[in-house]
Amino acid sequence: MESTGKVKSFNLLKKLGSYGLMFKKGDFFTKTSFFIMGFGSFMRKQLFAGIALLFIQLTFIVFMSTSGLKFLTGLIKLGTMTQGKVWNEEMGIYIMSKGDNSMLFLLFGVATIFVVIAFIYVYFANIKLAYTNQQLIQEGKRPMRFKETVNILLDEKFHITVLSLPVLLTFMFTIVPLVFMILIAFTNFDANHQPPGNLFTWVGFSNFTSVLWDNPLKSHTFSSLLVWTLIWATFATVLNYLFGMILALMINKKGIRLKKFWRTIFVVTIAVPQFVSLLLMSRLLADQGPVNLILQSMGWVKTFVPFLSDGNVARVTVIVVNLWVGIPYTMLITSGILMNIPVDIYESAKIDGAGPIRQFTAITLPYMLFVTTPYLITQFIGNINNFNVIYLLTGGGPLSLNLYQAGKTDLLVTWLYKLTVNYQDYALASTIGIFIFILSAFFSLVVFNRSSSVKKEEEFQ
Amino acid sequence: MIKSMKTRSFIYNTFIHLILSIMSVIWLLPIAWLVLVSFREEPGAYTPYLIPKSFTLSNYTRLFTETKLFNYPRWFLNTFIVAVLTCLISTMLILLTSYALSRLRFKLRKPMMNIALVLGMFPGFMSMIAVYHILKAFGLTQSLAALVLVYSGGAALGYYISKGFFDTIPKSIDEAAMLDGASKSQIFWKITLPLSKPIVVYTILTAFMGPWMDFIFVSVIMKDNYRNYTVALGLYQMLTRENIYQYFTRFAAGAVLIAIPITIIFIYMQKYYVSGITGGSVKG
Q: From the CA of A294, how many Å to the nearest CA of chain B?
């Protein structure tokens, strides 16, 4: 580990050194490019590139001097002035001050860091370009024209053309927000520290410690939700997998008629949008819902079955309803793979007198487990993050006083959602998000190590 | 001996047919109930019987005529506009990204794929509050444009499935074209894309369906701006405690109306769906 770190820092030094060398070997144009970007291009007839680089440099300087530096220093304290009345010496009265908005300080600070990194990248590209131009001229060639650059961007460097927009948007809508939210986990941004009325500030790891052991209520909530999340994910994954596979085997068995018909029926239930089918289920199973009403009118139950209103019953209910959601899905996915199991294995097992159950446990299951482990683990991670089923069915309820802003069936993700949307407890929510990330990352690493499809990628082509 | 085996397998198959029939009934029951409720004339949320006493079409017509509180046609139009724009932008982003990561070789390829993998491990809506404030900084919140940006902004990260497809197109085709002097961009437009019709269709359809099914991001972005709600969020509002008694039958009608096209699209593209899921995560 340490040696790779050393190699990396050595490489970085070497790279910086190579730019130093460029400065030393560079002629006047190249040297000036270190200070005036695009100079080396502009003076060598690359008008467009030169103007663009100069424009970038000027914009950057203007941005940094007017607001960028302010944003960066704002990151240190996240604002110092609370909104409220401030004594104005000149006028001799109190005037309302808008105060600092910690959240915007953080957001703009993070964005500025990314702008600075992007600028540094362009800056070094500018030097490299100037130096390459110089070398080309020394070799008696000429620097690339604009049209040639465009042609290269459509051919050898097509990836730059293709990927720049996706990368830019991913930065704007995924990476910057995510970095922002990760940083929030190290602040005290909650309902009592809400901008613009109040400031929030850095608190180090105290959110993490309070979730893990410091705060009894929060740490109890976290541990019991974590346990329930894992139980839920295990049951949801394993039961769906087993029953889904059995359904697929039944439909595909020799001698079963109307295969397509059965398949379509089950596919229809996946196709109906989840918010429709699950909301419907939650209403069907409500205390005064049709299922209970029918059970009562039949005289089977006296009052009602608390399908979704009693903690433990609700936990069973969500797992059972999730079977309704998940079995057809597994059936659809595994059908094709099941057909690939060589028929003669089954034939010889039959001759040996193995019944259908024995065939399933001795042949089908081991084969399928071998082939679909990565799929199973992906499903498991998906279930850790299974927001829809829980949120639409129970909303995480029934609420419990022993838990902090959470209910008996809440998973970590639904807790995260509630903390952000209903309780504005952003710092805690971000902390939970980081824990969910660690959980998913752990299981993903397992997939990654076992999946050969990643390594085999090149063989296909 | 042979005869007894035949009868045994006959009994066995009959038994399986029976189980399949029972399961079909269980699985279709909630959906059948939805359709029945949408035609029910009696008001109220729940009834102690499944089949309505009298049938009517008024739940459907009233969705489009009584639009004062719940403007279903408007929501439908909103969702349609958002879906079309999202579909155009995301399809472009996904196809470009997956093509580059599948067919082109460059230094940052592997690091980019690893970063995408890591980003995918964070809960999707963890960042939505930050996204909300970024949109606010642009003055875009509570608008349909914001919704389009949110749905398509992160689209590039969903490149796996189409990359898996591009990976299966033989490289020799590209090489032959290159020998004939085609540039990489020409290869993409004139060779790869025409060969990838199924995955293009799949990408378009999934991108189009997204806005019809999401209600998390809409609820965060639109807050109380009812005019700009999408169908999913609007229907969700019909089931709140205050509204459910009066609006449950209309909710059912509205849900049936959007479930039908989505179901048809899904059944049509199930085989791409399966190969997409299994292609990446199942070895074999």
A: 5
- Decide: helix, strand or coil at residue B229: coil
Name the residue among A107, A274, A294 with its Cβ closest to that of B48: A294
> What is the phi/psi pair of residue A218, to 5°?
-65, -40
Residue contact A328–B27, C-beta within 8 A? yes
Distance from CA of B164 to the nearest CA of A (A): 9
Whether pTM > 0.90 for this model: the answer is no
- pLDDT tens sequence across A332-365: 888 878 887 888 888 888 888 888 888 888 888 8
Q: Which amino acid is at A246?
A: I
- Token pair in block for residue A272: 């109906």
Q: How far is A181 from chain B (nearest CA, A)?
A: 6
Residue of A nearest to B265 (CA): A271
Residue-level pLDDT at A5: 53
Rounded distance, CA B171 to CA B187, Å?
11
Interface A–B counts its CB contacts (< 8 A) at 265
Pick from A414, A403, A413: which is nearest to A437 by CA?
Answer: A413
Pick from B126, B131, B168: which is nearest to A416 by CB?
B126
Considering only the beta carbons, identify the residue of B47, B153, B259 that sits closest to A276: B259
Q: How far apart are CA A240 and CA B263, in angstroms?
A: 22
Nearest Cα residue to B100 out of B89, B85, B117, B112: B112
**Cβ(A308)–Cβ(A334) below 8 Å:** no
pLDDT surpasses 90 at A321: yes
Distance from CA of A58 to the nearest CA of B (A): 23
| Mean pLDDT taken over chain A | 84
Where are the domains positioned within chain B?
A: 2-60, 62-281
Cβ pair A279:B17 closer than 8 A: no
Q: How confident is the prediction along chain B (284 residues), in pLDDT tens digits per residue? A: 556 777 878 888 888 899 999 999 999 988 998 999 999 988 877 777 778 888 888 889 988 888 888 889 999 999 999 999 999 999 999 999 999 998 888 888 888 888 888 888 888 778 887 888 888 878 888 889 999 998 898 888 888 888 888 888 888 888 899 898 888 888 988 888 888 888 888 888 888 888 888 888 888 888 888 888 999 889 888 888 888 888 889 999 999 998 888 888 888 877 777 766 665 444 33
Residue A405, φ and ψ in degrees, nearest 5: 50, 35
Please state which CATH number belongs to domain B62-281: 1.10.3720.10
**In the Cβ-directed half-sphere of A126, how many Cα atoms lie within 13 Å?**
28
- Between residues B233 and A301, which one has the greater pLDDT? B233
Asked whether the beta carbons of residue B284 and residue A340 sit closer than 8 angstroms, the reply is yes
Give the length of chain A: 461
Judged by CB atoms closer than 8 Å, whether chains meet at B184 and A250 is answered as no
From B31, B128, B133, residue closest to A269, measured CB to CB: B31
Which one is predicted more confidently, A150 or A122? A122
Domains of chain A (ranges, CATH numbers): 10-198 (no CATH), 209-460 (1.10.3720.10)
Cα A328 from chain centre: 26
Q: Whole-angstrom Cα distance, residue A457 to residue A251?
A: 33
Residues in a beta bridge with A399: A407
In DSSP terms, A85 is beta-bridged to: A96
Three-state SS string across A279-311, please?
HHHHHHCCCCCHHHHHHHHCCCCCCCCCCCCCH
pLDDT at position A177 over 70: yes
Neighbours of A457 (CB within 10 A): 14
Q: What SS3 state is found at A244? A: helix
C-alpha B204/C-alpha B188 separation (Å) is 18
Q: Does A421 sit within 8 Å of B220, measured CB to CB?
A: yes
Would you call A170 and B26 a contact, using CB atoms and an 8 Å cutoff? no
Nearest to B257 by CA among B232, B233, B238, B240: B232
